[in-house]
Automatic annotation (TrEMBL):
Membrane-crossing segments per the record: 12-33
InterPro entries xrefs: Secre_tail
Stored Pfam families: Por_Secre_tail
Protein name: Secretion system C-terminal sorting domain-containing protein
Domain of life: Bacteria
Length: 464
């Protein structure tokens, strides 16, 4: 199922970096009875860092989960599949959002018979964490639960200390995974332990231990440990982690730094009492936060190219290229990839064409086309606060006053929730306060857009 909603575009170094080293797990199945730990729900090996990041950010590596602009969300999406050299209608979706712009319901409709087909609902806690995702099928004129997940988050002193997930197996809810987090005296994450559910009990599997050189920066070393008997034993280490200074943000998420992919790091395996090089990874950034990740293996005392991942974004920060390559016979060879042709109307993503890499023809081929329509305006709490004292009265009868910070002039638009401009007027440069007359509009809720040298600011207004 395609999920049509915008995820947070800021990459989370912690989750991304955990994904970067999840390849470690693939060689450790024996420590978990054949299971693979997956703190973020995604398997990855070296060279698949970007694929993993894309999965968390966009929903799927295959047909894309879709990101719209910061302000506008589509209420409808029509999906076409590439069949016999043409686009064939496949399914239609109706999308519903909450006040924060989060998708809370996605309903699929059979476009040929105009009947319900599928439905997915989402729920969130007060911190914005997704707590529930339920998938239904339309059977005998009723919605029947077919699958889903539930998650609970435990916080201590405003820090995430435990995450527990369940899944629906078609008959009952079953415990799935548990993660426990500890923090050091500086408030940085110190460890993340993963448990799986077996024989009605939580079984410890793997642990990530984070070490810091500077308490205000992300970690410089990560240890991967497995439970052997009663002790946690270090099986692999990631050292010399370097971060792009420009991409390390100061805010926190779950008490963790928000930044981007590490600039470089080195992975080592144990050999007796020593550590030996296994592989290293480096990341190079370019326009629109695009980047290329290159891994090299340590072989016969030399570093040799191994894998390369390319992520390219457009000016709206939406994905346009995601490509995996392997270094073979002295050249880079594409092994998988996706391309996305995005069409915009201002900030609205109105169409997306997804192409997938075909290994036989060694070209990108059309796969899926999605057309978005019936856009809804979503305002952030920050935007609401910015204009709260500058637009009054609100609610309004016929006229309201607009007070700007400076007499710089500009343009004011009153826009319907569907995105249609209903009124547009120039702001005077000679007055810091100006009266706007909306007596001709029917009662309802509208979006006020203020275009000035400071940028575009928006506020929701109500006409009585």
């Amino acid at each position: 199922m395609v999920k049509f909603y915008k995820k947070n575009i800021a990459p989370i170094w912690y989750k991304v970096f955990v994904l970067s080293i999840l390849f470690l797990i693939l060689t450790l199945a024996s420590f978990a009875g054949g299971r693979k730990s997956n703190p973020s729900g995604i398997s990855a090996r070296k060279g698949e860092t970007t694929k993993a990041l894309n999965l968390k950010t966009f929903g799927t590596v295959g047909p894309p989960s879709l990101r719209t602009g910061e302000t506008w969300k589509p209420r409808n999406a029509t999906v076409y599949m590439w069949m016999y050299d043409s686009w064939d209608l496949d399914i239609k979706y109706e999308l519903i959002y909450d006040a924060q712009g989060r998708l809370i319901e996605e309903k699929g409709i059979n476009p040929f018979e105009n009947v319900n087909f599928s439905r997915t609902t989402f729920a969130f806690d007060s911190r914005g964490n997704e707590t529930e995702a339920l998938s239904y099928q339309w059977v005998n004129n009723a919605w029947v639960l077919k699958g889903g997940s539930k998650s609970t988050y435990t916080y201590t002193n405003n820090k995430l200390t435990q995450y527990v997930s369940q899944y629906y197996n078609g008959q009952a809810w079953v415990s799935n995974e548990k993660y426990e987090y500890t923090y050091n005296a500086s408030g940085n994450i110190e460890s993340e332990a993963f448990y799986y559910w077996e024989n009605n009990a939580w079984v410890p599997n793997l642990k990530f231990v984070y070490q810091y050189t500077n308490a205000t920066q992300p970690p410089t070393t990560v240890l991967l440990q497995a439970k052997q008997g009663e002790a946690w034993v270090t099986l692999r280490q990631v050292i010399d982690i370097q971060w792009h200074a420009s991409t390390i943000a100061s805010k926190n998420y779950f008490g963790l730094f928000v930044g981007q992919e590490p600039g470089s790091f080195l992975v080592q395996n144990p050999s007796g009492s020593n550590w030996v090089n296994y592989f290293r990874q480096s990341t190079t950034y370019s326009a629109n936060d695009s980047y290329v990740i290159t891994t090299e293996e340590f072989s016969n005392q030399n570093w040799v190219f191994d894998e390369r991942t390319t992520m390219q974004f457009d000016s709206h920060k939406n994905l346009v290229v995601m490509q995996e390559e392997e270094y073979t016979a002295g050249q880079w060879v594409v092994t998988s990839g996706s391309k996305y042709a995005n069409t915009y109307d201002g900030d609205k993503l109105t169409e997306l064409i997804y192409q997938a890499w075909d290994k036989t023809s060694k070209t990108y081929k059309n796969n899926q086309r999605i057309v978005f329509s019936n856009f809804q305006a979503i305002l952030s709490a920050k935007e609401e606060l910015q204009l709260a004292a500058q637009v009054y009265p609100n609610p309004v009868q016929d006229r309201f006053s607009l007070k700007l910070d400076q007499n710089t002039g500009g343009l004011v638009k009153v826009v319907s929730l569907a995105g249609k401009t209903l009124l547009s007027t120039e702001l005077s440069r000679s007055a810091g306060e100006q009266e706007i007359n909306i007596a001709g509009l029917p009662a309802g809720t509208y979006i006020l857009q203020i275009h000035s040298k400071a940028g575009v600011r928006t506020k929701k207004i109500t006409k009585l």
